[in-house]
Amino acid sequence: MGAGRDEIGYWDASVGRYRRRADSGAVFVRQGAPLAREEHVPSLGCAVQMSIRRSNIRNMPHDDSAASSQSLERGLALLTTFTPDQPALGISELAQRLGLTRSTTHRYVATLARLGYLSQDETTRKYRLGIRVLDLGFTVLGSLELREIAAPHLQRLTQNTGHTSNLAIRDDTDVILVDRFRGKPGRYHHLEFSLHIGSRIPSYCSATGKVLLAFLPQADLDDLLDRIELIARGPRALTKRPALLAELAQVRRTGLAVNDEEMDSGLRAIAVPIRSRSGAVVAAINLAFPWSPAPMSELTDQFSPMLFTTARAISSLVI
């Protein structure tokens, strides 16, 4: 049986967008279905909704109150009110479309403008989407393009090895899985089946995360490590900064990172970088293995050549 893409959603033509399956955090077609292709470029409003996890909102104080949830919904609704046909809107127009008072609308607009999601034209006093939304939109479009480039190569890698392959990008201190092909059923660790496209995992104890940390400029790496709590998630996790830095230096030298039961017991993986034409590391791919008595060096010797070959093939297509 061929590798199944771990996709858990479907395209709803009646409304012109992807829908999530009820038990899923992702937005793609269900596992085992033919690969779906989105036939239009997502709008920046759609990009905001798809990328909200990547925004500064997740760094704000946590509040589960109904009022806070309502504010978030209203803020997103406000952003998606802007369209290519009407890119600039005033407070009155926004209030009317959202069904809110002018004062309430102005409060939301002021907050979004302060965060960079809206900007105001000094002449017309109307608002339009800000640079921060463009950043999110380009991030989404870039990851979708990379996903389509990498998909056939990852599928072939999983078919040839029998093991799960993943494509991941970094989001601040974490890693996000943007594509995934599952290996042979019945042989994987429980954590493997709790991960899906869109899953967020720690960078310091995952193979893809180490790759994406290792090639950062030193100042950026130091800043991230200052904000990462090195806790023992798995029995072999590196919880001391000097030890992690030494391993990241090794990753830079070899181009290969390993996770040997560092994220959870029984879960192992190897990862390598995906580079753009400029040589910058833009993503990472990995192979994940169930635990076995074989030493990690044996797994890397056996599977790293195929992983490097796959990474080179993908990198050659990345602009």
TrEMBL record:
Tell me which residues make up the IclR-ED domain: 132-319
GO BP of this protein = glycerol metabolic process; negative regulation of DNA-templated transcription
**Keywords assigned by UniProt?**
DNA-binding, Glycerol metabolism, Transcription, Transcription regulation
Establish whether keyword Transcription regulation is in the entry: yes
Key word Iron present in the record?
A: no
Note the Gene3D superfamilies from the entry.
Answer: 3.30.450.40, Winged helix-like DNA-binding domain superfamily/Winged helix DNA-binding domain
Q: Name one Pfam family in it.
A: HTH_IclR
What region holds the HTH iclR-type domain? 69-131
Q: Which domain of life is it from?
A: Bacteria
Could you cite one Gene Ontology molecular function of this protein?
Answer: DNA binding
Instruction: Give the function comment from the record.
Output: May be an activator protein for the gylABX operon.
Question: What is the protein named?
Answer: Glycerol operon regulatory protein
Q: Which organism is it from?
A: Trebonia kvetii
Q: What is the lineage of its organism?
A: Bacteria, Bacillati, Actinomycetota, Actinomycetes, Streptosporangiales
